[in-house]
Amino acid sequence: MRAEPSRILVSACLAGLKVRYNGLDSREERIERWVLEGRAVTVCPEVLGGCPTPREPAEIVGGTGEDVLAGRARVVDTTGADVTDKFVRGAYETLRIARETGASAAVLKQSSPSCGSARIYDGTYTGRKIPGVGVTAALLRREGIAVLSEEELDELDELMPDSGGSRPDDR
Ligand code: SF4
């Protein structure tokens, strides 16, 4: 039996890695510290799925991440390219890493078509958001892994009892 402390997955961009579509990060100090302390494992589902960085921004068209997994919706970038297969592959790669690391929870970037856990863009490329989850968040939840966002870090205190630190910016 392993006696390792609970580990979580975190969106790589939240840990300061420049993997967002625009080549930038969405660094959150507390998450970056968890990674440096070896208590969190970074994942970027879109990079894991084969997307380059930088890349064209993409949105889910015709539904949510659950619909994408069920084949009822697609992920399409702003050039019109269908990138659904990459997003689904990235979701399953993230699930594989969760299982390998024994992670029971993930903190993923809100509003992303992969990582969003409460809101996603609505598929019109106009900046509007709708309630819904991204493709990776949907798969992890379906498989019993808790998915939170950077807006809910305090809820992780039970899992990460030594974390402390400052509250994240709400951007
Ligand atoms: Fe960050 Fe997730 Fe987008 Fe990767 S897929 S850049 S981890 S929000």
Write the layout of secondary structure elements.
Elements lengths: L7 E4 L17 H8 L3 E4 L1 H4 L9 E4 L3 H5 L4 E4 L6 H18 L3 E4 L10 E3 L7 E3 L3 H8 L3 E4 L22
Parallel strand pairs: 1-2, 1-5, 5-8
Antiparallel strand pairs: 3-4, 6-7
Helix pairs in contact: 4-5
Describe, in plain words, how this protein is organized in 3D.
By secondary structure, the protein is an alpha/beta fold. It has one domain. The protein contains five helices and eight strands, in the order βαβαβαβαβββαβ. A four-stranded parallel sheet has the order 2-1-5-8, sandwiched between helices. Strands 3-4 form a two-stranded antiparallel sheet. α4 crosses α5. The chain is globular. It starts with 7 loop residues before the first strand and ends in a 22-residue tail after the last strand. The N terminus and C terminus are likely disordered. The site of iron/sulfur cluster has 12 residues, from α2.
Question: Any key phrases for this structure?
Answer:
171 residues; alpha/beta; 4-stranded parallel sheet; disordered N terminus; binds iron/sulfur cluster
Roughly what fraction of the amino acids lie in strands?
15-25%
**Ligands, ions, cofactors:** iron/sulfur cluster
Question: What is the residue-averaged pLDDT?
Answer: 91
Which regions have little confidence, pLDDT < 50, spanning 5+ residues? 1-5, 163-171
Strands of the largest sheet, in order across it?
Answer: 2-1-5-8
Structure described in brief:
The chain has helices spanning 29-36, 45-48, 65-69, 84-101, 135-142, and strands spanning 8-11, 40-43, 58-61, 74-77, 105-108, 119-121, 129-131, 146-149. The protein is an alpha/beta fold.
